[in-house]
Amino acid sequence: MPHLRLALNQIDSTVGDLDGNAEAVLHWTRRSVERGAHLVAFPEMMLTGYPVEDLALRSSFVHASRAALRALAGRLSDEGFGEVPVVVGYLDRAEQARPGYARPAGAPQNAAAVLHRGEVALTFAKHHLPNFGVFDEFRYFVPGETLPVVRVHGVDVALAICEDLWQDGGRVPAARTAGAGLLLSVNASPYERDKRDTRLELVRKRAQEAGCTTAYLAMTGGQDELVFDGDSIVVDARGEVLARAPQFEEDCVVLDLELPAAADTPPAGTVDDGLRVEHVTLSPDPLPACEPEFTGSEARRLEDDEEIYTALVVGLRAYAAKNGFRSVIFGLSGGIDSALVAAIACDALGPENVYAVSMPSRYSSEHSKDDAAEMARRTGLNYRTVPIGPMFDAFMEAVELTGVSEENLQSRLRGVTLMGLSNQEGHIVLAPGNKSELACGYSTLYGDSVGAYGPIKDVYKTNVFRLAKWRNRAAAERGDTPPIPENSITKPPSAELRPGQVDSDSLPDYDVLDRILKLYVDGDVGREGIIEHGFDPDVVTRVLRMTDAAEYKRRQYPPGTKISAKGFGKDRRLPITNRWREAAVEQ
Fold it and tell me: 44 an active-site residue?
């Protein structure tokens, strides 16, 4: 059987940075070629970054992407890599009008190309376009209608892009019909909890359907609220894992494969789902058999809490770095939310780039002030105290406020203080709100919601506690000092805006609240369906009303790392002006 050495470059890219992304392709191609690769691959839309959103609608950006692709092909050849085919994703446009999609010629396409000998040897567009969750690809792109196949050292390699594997039909069965020896899919599949198991089973299933070894190349890094976790996978035709890349790390997976020889006559014509085979022979002759040098390995899988925490770290690190910020600032109250944010920030950016401010009021407890100071001592972050009492008193002399207005004033003074320090010193402000609070509107506009990024925006309160405990346990296992004071974890949560206040004054118990919210927010289950799970009808009604009424607040909250199947943002799009309320269904 012919021998093929495949290099999968699981790396990060930055949206819009065509030059920087091209340099990354050159760098990692060099590494791949130095290890003897015969075929080199990069993730979906590697050259432009992903997702490009409405940049896809700018003809100037599409033109720049196409020009950058041609230039990259030339540079790869000039660097001495021209004989090695390189698969790279980019933004293209359809040459023909697509009346069936009501799109004219020139409509954008999510595409990939095979670069070889200084030329663009083959291009193809994604066939299955996702249109759910964070994906809006029907808004932007028209689908491809070909089955691209390249012959590399006597092996026919069928090519696909991400959703082409996630949906049934299309290029997977077409690869079998065309007699492909390898199916290579380039992807930019965002992270969410429990997806790694779904992904592995998907790749196994598709390999069996395609009847050939299947390589699933993923992206890593972060883009706005999305995190990409890598976890690239290669399985044989039976679904047995041959190699699996690490999670959340850049890596070059090199693997020696023994693959079926291509037929003498290349595949042609129309195959499954009306796809037209587009075949290009790059190197017809098989390489002689040899002892495999790169036999593949499976990287360690992260356990659940470690995986989520790592995603939060990667998301914050990418957002800060790609937007040109080196440091962050936030209020450190001594409570669990700001403590977890502090730990994430220190791990993402280094404690020297983390600035925390204690802003006590007359209602701040001594133990909370002590816990904040202890967190700073344990982590080594930059720490200062700015009492808001004088500001509060001055404001109250000018404008008399009472009740909730008086409570929220404290939060807003803290927000103004943080924004002032941000402007003065050049940090970005982190908002410490969690998903439970955002769901119920348990936050103050222009107060604790101010900021450029919300690291735990998609983390329910019960998981905040779990992640804090995991981070401390992980530190202890390494022989390090646990970063989060135990008192921040064990004491009852409180905003401390009035005497004796605790969260349970305003919200149900978090264990109950979060289970209701997971059904309503993440699962779109209605009131009656939630009650059927055994919850008190009055509690369910109260939680749903709070959630529905807080949409205007969530729209004004900063972006934050998405870790669930449905986060607040692109995943969940509800009108602000909305009189529909879940009510008992009359039989």
Answer: yes
